[in-house]
Amino acid sequence: MEQISYTKQRIALLDEVRGFSILCMVFYHFTFDLLLLFPISFPFFYSPWMNGIRDIFAGIFIFISGCACRFSHNNCKRGLFCLLFGMIMTFVTIIVIPEQQIIFGILHMLGSCMILFSLVHPLLDQIKPSLALCLCIVLFLYTFQVAQKKFGIPYLFHFTLPSWLYQTNWLSPLGFYNENFVSSDYFPLFPWMFLFFAGTIIGKWILQGQCPNIIYQSHCPVLGAVGRHTIYIYLLHQPILFTGLFLMKQWVYA
Question: For 140-151, how does the pLDDT look when each residue is reduced to its tens digit (9 = 90+)?
Fold first, then answer.
């Protein structure tokens, strides 16, 4: 197959899937705010099933973000930019709504991964892509239950991690924290950075034109447009949703 570089153009399906994922996140936060502010009962929202659905869509977003790193000329700058926005959200939530504070959310994690990728991608590219992809998948599975003090394949086998890792919150960006840790949006590097790095490997194949044409063709321009502005949607949607629902509550129960 002839290899074609797509460095100069957007990859349609990546933007569309990312747009769909961020809209799902907006809907999730809308439901969360609705249940928080209004006397509505919806037990399924707090069930393990819902947590699994949330993680699936967040995982898709993280994976696509990893793919997109292959199309950036300065991932370190992008990472610092993303991390800065994450820190702003931390500061604002601690001051304004401390009960919903964000200590290491998805922006912190993505920014950290972009910076890490900018440092290690020459070494990563020395590994056979199929081997590197398998390694990322295995490490993602093995570290998926780190927050539960487990290391191993979920539902198959695991061993308990040493308790000293969980005696402080300084290691919370890695997934180790004690009972005092609170973060309403929490995506530690373990396991999510391995899903991000798996995306960077697939992104290299996409960049080289080695994937089916469906990846490069536009299917839903609206979702594509949303996917090109996810950072701004992520930053603005929660303040707008919460403020709008709060004002609605004041009007309904006035």
Answer: 999 999 999 999
